[in-house]
Design a protein that fits this description.
This protein has no helices and nine strands. A hairpin with a 3-residue loop joins strand 1 and strand 2. By secondary structure, it is an all-beta fold. The protein is globular, with a radius of gyration of 15 Å. It has a domain of about 80 residues: Jelly Rolls. The strands form two sheets. The protein has a five-stranded antiparallel β-sheet with strand order 1-2-9-4-7, with no helix packed on it. Strands 3-8-5-6 form a four-stranded antiparallel β-sheet, with no helix packed on it.
Length: about 120
């Protein structure tokens, strides 16, 4: 059964899952016009294959340890660490230990960030 997505103004808990981590699965927290936020859950040794998305991505390690594989090399993330991945950058994620991470995807990348009116 799919978990319901949050709505604007709703508080979403993203604290470490602790003992519930082993029985948890990756799920979307919300999806809006411009963003999608999900909790990624991987067991030790599990991985997401290399892929790319059109917009920027952040991966914020909540618990456990993971590695993000980029063209420039492997970046290790520990709890509390956040990584920004550029738009269209090929990346994969592997769990060093059971882990969960908050992943934010920009769905509609801006082509003119400097054009913001004051």
């Amino acid at each position: 059964m799919a978990l319901p997505h949050a709505v604007p103004g709703q508080v979403i808990g993203v604290a470490p899952l602790g003992p519930l981590l082993k029985g948890s699965r990756t799920h979307a927290l919300f999806k809006s016009r411009d963003l999608e936020v999900m909790r990624l859950v991987l067991g030790a040794g599990d991985a997401l294959p290399p892929h790319r998305v059109p917009g920027e991505v952040t991966i914020h390690c909540i618990e456990g340890r993971c590695e993000v594989r980029l063209a420039a090399g492997v970046v290790a993330l520990a709890p509390g660490e956040l990584l920004l991945i550029g738009a269209n950058e090929v990346h994969g994620v592997a769990a060093v230990s059971d882990c969960s991470a908050l992943v934010t995807l920009v769905l509609k990348p801006s082509t003119h960030l400097d054009a913001v009116e004051p």
